[in-house]
Amino acid sequence: MLDQYQKEYATQNVQFILIDEKGTILETDQAFLKLETNSSIFDVHAFFYTFESIKDTLENALLFSCVHIHFKDEDYVTDIRFVKKKEGYLIIITDYTSHYTEYQAIAQTRNESIINGELVAIKNAELEERENFKNSFIRNFSHELRNPLTSIISITKILSDTALTNQQQDMVTFLQQSNANLKQLLDDILSISMISSGRLKLRENIFSLSQLFDLLRFTYKTRALDNNIEFAVNVDKKIVDLVEGDRLRLFQVLTNLLDNAFKYTQTGSIRLDIQLNQKRANRLNLRFEIVDTGVGISVENQTAIFESFSQLSGEQNSDAPRGTGLGLSIVKGLLNLMDSEIKVISNVGEGSSFYFDLTLKQPLATTSKTSIITPRKKKDKKAKFRTDKKFRILLAEDDINVQTVLFKSLLDTNYFYIDLVSDGALVMEKLINEEYDLLLIDINLPNVTGDQVARLIRDFPFKNIKSIPIIGITAYSYEDDFKAFKKSGMNAVLSKPFEHEELLSTMAKYLK
Amino acid sequence: MQVSKKIVVLGHFGVGKTSLIRRFVEDSFSDNYKVSIGVHITKKVVEVSPEEEVSLILWDLEGTDDLTTIRDAYLLGTHGVVFVFDVTRPSTFQALNADLDIVRSKISKTPLLVVGNKVDLVLKEDLETLFTKNNIETNFLTSAKTGNAVNDLFLHLAKLLH
């Protein structure tokens, strides 16, 4: 009985063919390939050409797995075994089509998934490379601009201290405003670059919200009066004063949004409303909303305004002064960092409302006043130096323009004797041969960089050299660069372009 | 007189081996990726000189990133090898020289052509950088999609083996 079942099932999928040495079919069953005796096996399928190359070396049996055979409009996936016999060569073909079809489906899913994963990784790597290139470009661009800008700012300062006619004074004021705008643009570009490269880190501190809002009121009150616009900051009374978060970045977000509102509002009002959304455990969720009665933004432009360098050609800037187009992009980036999102509701001709919800921590215990961040007040006092002696300064700077203006502006104060070098390698020689009270050194010097010089100085065996105050000046502006320069042994680092007073007050700290 | 030559086409999966053969044999192309399992064998007769033809028996082997797993039976009687990689996927050529060593250890003394496929998807200057960076030397750069250099590749091999 079993023999009969075996014949019935097994023979359906297995075909036996006997061929001679020339490939002629001597005998065959007709299990699934309908073949004729005395025909050539080579005409059945190109696979069988392999017989030519194996017949001489075939000892017992040879198996070929998973061979696709197309015969008389039918596709089969088979295992094919060649066996050497007395009478000739036996070919046993087993049809595993259904089995291999299942395997193919599994392989298809697996391979597609691997390939897609690889392509996504390649795409990501490309995007990262582009982003790195962009950030590196911005960094170099910013660096290269800072040297000439330092010269321009310093020269403007020197010029403003001379006797000027009213007309000349107006022109110098215009120059100073343009310098400030250019510096702001550079700082904005740098902020964008730092946000997109992930180099901007939030710093959480406890700070007073009321002080922050007072500062905003104070800052924008005069501007509103000048423009004949109503301005108000409305704070929900349920909001506690002390919170924990990144005060500086929140301030940057709010000032960018307010600057934007002022830029595009000619008449009417601008309002900053702060509402408590909810308070859970020690977390406050606040809604910040800046509402203006400005020109408004059309729906199709409401996404584009948050992209870098997006100065809309239409309604937003029709009569307004041109800006960098970076402010709102910075807002978007900073809020993303703070797990928030900027949103806008606006109608052309009616005004705009920019808003975001932000979670801030509420400090659990009452914290001592000393750890609370308060805004730094600008010192009006001029830097004070001893008048009974002149200090000897070694200025190491290779940029001839920066060198000239620094030399002149420092010399004009009458507090200093200045020696100049423009190569890092010459600094040590000067320090060994002369006595100086302070080293003012550019970081990016040829041959030996400023930070390398600082390390050499701090490792030097003689105390008079080892302990000289070092102030670094640099066009690099990333915070981690600053940290690295300070770590090299510098007492302070100033970022180009800096104000003359900032330089003097920093120097005064170390010259007693 | 017509002679038969067995050509084995191998490489990692998804590099376009089947598409190259289909372009050569049927002059067609499909964007749909269908994974090949086992081996597909096709035949094409090419004219190597006005009086001579060679019948190329093309063995399209299942792609694998581990070439040591190729079944030895598939390689018996091979006259020529075409190793194909995908110029857009580094995983298919990053270990090219090691892969070729494996192939050569399995089929020694057999002409082997190295082919970078899918060149229609990359810029020529990017390719040069890519090959220099990865220390890669190719015999042919093909595109099964456009047909670029596909016939040249197989005809070159046919003449080489003839």
Considering the protein shown, what is the CATH homologous superfamily of the largest domain in chain A?
Histidine kinase-like ATPase, C-terminal domain
Describe the main β-sheet of chain B briefly.
6 strands, mixed
CATH topology of chain B: Rossmann fold
What shape does the CA trace of chain A take? elongated
* Cα-atom radius of gyration of chain B: 15 Å
Structural class of chain A: alpha/beta
Low-confidence stretches of chain A are: 313-321
- Which percent bin holds the helix content of chain B? 25-40%
Q: How widely separated are the two ends of chain A? A: 115 Å
Q: How confident overall, as mean pLDDT of chain B?
A: 93
What share of residues are in beta strands of chain B? 25-35%
Q: What count of structural domains of chain A?
A: 4
The appropriate CATH architecture of chain B is 3-Layer(aba) Sandwich
Oligomer: heterodimer
The major β-sheet of chain A equals:
5 strands, antiparallel
Sum up the overall morphology of chain B in one term: globular
Helix content of chain A: 40-55%
Structural class of chain B: alpha/beta
EC number (chain A): 2.7.13.3
GO molecular function, one term (chain A): phosphorelay sensor kinase activity
Keywords (chain A): Kinase, Phosphoprotein, Transferase, Two-component regulatory system
Catalytic activity (chain A): ATP + protein L-histidine = ADP + protein N-phospho-L-histidine
